[in-house]
Amino acid sequence: MNAKASLGIDPEELASCVACGLCLPHCPTFRVTGEEWASPRGRISAMRQIQDQGAAIDQAFLSSMDSCVQCRGCEPACPSGVPFGSMMEATQAALARERRIDWRRWGFRVLGYRRLLNLLSRVLAVVQRLRLVPSKRLGLPKIPLRQDRLRASGDDVWLFTGCVMDAWQRSTHAAVKRVVESAGVGVALPGSGAACCGALSLHAGLEDHARALAARTMGALAGSAPILVDSSGCGAVLKEYGMLVGTAEAEEFSERVMDVHEWLATRLDMLPPAGEQDQEATVAVHDPCHLRHVQRAHQSVAEVLARYATAVALDDDGLCCGAGGAYAAMQPELAASIRERKLEAIGRSGADIVASANPGCTIHLANAGVTVLHPLEIVDEMLGEILDQAADDDR
């Protein structure tokens, strides 16, 4: 590709970076490579060359943009408040328009059709068991052949279930639903209209598809009830529908969205008390990037876990694990190198189990041999033990 194109970035946003370099220690790709082209500062400089100076979009520019995890760890570190995430989304949208042939344009469309995704997932599960697909090299978890259906229990809150997580990790949704219900509320489940939040499409630059999915999701989660999300990547984009869609309705919708831990942290006294043995469990808390850097709600995970276990923070200041949605599949070598630093931090924690509130992170870390669960899977298991013990005491 050697075309000239406008990236469509707001000029004020593009000029806001003063190249101070305070973002560099927080950028996972710069930490791994040490190269300027793999840093937020370097990427913004390349964007300026394209948009302001009319430079050609060449392979070096594509490599620089595609190597970004879009973790947005640079944003909280930036004293100038550079909105790097929106600049990357605009750039990816411009590149998507240039790339006429891109598998993501078609592959991500499947995510909006729940029945088709479930069917393809079952086919993949069979292929996995026949050892006809290199699951480890592709970073795939073991796909379930069948899953139990989730059933609504009320209409106090919505539980957003999404696409890949519902097809591959529905048991996590089931555990989250049980924990929320233990706080005494009924959980409503969306129909097929909310089959996908659009996060993967947005990160790939497919803005029109992301907006179409957003419109469907908003229609499927109507009303005024809080919308609880147990995937940090989904929660981040749902909270930014106001920016994506650009309507007052979207702004009002986003105000209803909460990470499930964020919601539970204000209702801890409604949850069953912990047993004496529960506090003995030590759990290392991995902060998914979009929960820490975008939603700024990562502390809620530790607050909820601390009721039932000893929650240990990792000492890496929330550095990305390298999962990045589809990033680990698209950039396997960089993703693995980024993950090594996370594995070192986990090792230093001394914990035997890791909690992560994002499905991509749990898959990526588990592929490296880490015992990792969603935080509320851990809580759900402990609540089950508490209820079993109470039943034994009554007998």
Task: Characterise the protein shown here.
By secondary structure, this protein is an alpha/beta fold. It has three domains: 11-97, Alpha-helical ferredoxin (Fumarate Reductase Iron-sulfur Protein, Chain B, domain 2), CATH 1.10.1060; 110-264, no CATH class; 273-394, Rossmann fold (3-Layer(aba) Sandwich). 51% of the residues lie in helices and 7% in strands. It has helices spanning 11-15, 28-33, 40-51, 59-66, 74-77, 84-98, 103-107, 114-129, 135-138, 164-168, 170-182, 199-203, 207-220, 232-239, 241-245, 248-255, 260-264, 289-294, 299-305, 327-330, 332-349, 359-366, 375-394; strands at residues 157-160, 187-188, 227-229, 257-259, 282-286, 310-313, 353-356, 372-373. A four-stranded parallel β-sheet has the order 2-1-3-4. Strand 7, helix 22 (359-366) and strand 8 (372-373) form a beta-alpha-beta unit. Helix 11 crosses helix 23 (375-394). The longest helix is centred in the C-terminal third of the chain and has 20 residues, at 375-394. The chain starts with 10 loop residues before the first helix and ends with a helix.
